[in-house]
């Protein structure tokens, strides 16, 4: 009988004057992620937050008849902190981890007639997964160790990869299983995919020019997330880069790096992104074991739209954009020519873009006038909410008004009209 892996089950409750009411599981998951960073407060929703700055005695003194040993904070309203509810965090017990339930795995070693890694195979079955010794139509993941890539004959290696992809199975590094176990959840397998077969030398190799990706950092925006792997001496470490703030005028950026296989460590970063080049420093530990992370570290990288590649202290990292605010139109520092309906020719210049917020200038050549604007963008419509003219006045416009962007066959040139 297989012994399952377990995780500690924790519940958060608030008191409604007569009984303890559990928060939803989605809220609890968010609370736990935030609580690991030891914050002073945790957001519940747009109206409420949990104050964690009080001692157990201070919490008890705020209420009558509540003295639970698990009290952890007070839920308050943002608009009135005196409207409060007691909050507790309770250890319920342990629950089995079965996030691989019903998923079929196969090791490249067993396909080639060898033995699979015992620890990795055991973890798969403990998490509810199914092990196969060959590639089947129901296979979901082909597990490949880094040593297998180095020692396996290239022709055999590529054939197994091709056979797996033929049944829509995903070839992944064995570190994927290790990372899932460390994080106690099924992670995104994308950073662990063995996407490129090993090179097979031929008798008469034909040189092929490799296209150089154009540097473009316009997708590096506040709120974007980049996930991938840092490779150190043949070992792979999943990393996630989150951009918290970005000054569009200076390129100064602040954010965090998350290391799933280094005890879930989170570190702060700061740097500068400009014209496809992104250099940053990892300088402070936010959470995690300080013995797992050596700081500071200096990173040098280049960005080509949705891809980021760089190095740190002789190691290589590659990241892909996994989460981003809308960036299909109105990128920072882009200029567009347009014609305003029934008024005059104008030029629109985007100076700053943060999520849906956008600002820039409208220039009216006929009047030799330039006005500054602030607004929001939703899909192809910019809503101008603030409009400030300079010394020279342009056409009379009353806010709010819309600028509608029209694309023609995905060409950069766009026809812009203003609806007043």
UniProtKB/TrEMBL annotation:
Residues 95-194 form the BRCT domain. This is BRCT domain-containing protein. PROSITE patterns: BRCT (PS50172). Gene3D superfamilies: 3.30.720.50, BRCT domain. InterPro entries: BRCT_dom, BRCT_dom_sf, WWE_dom_sf.
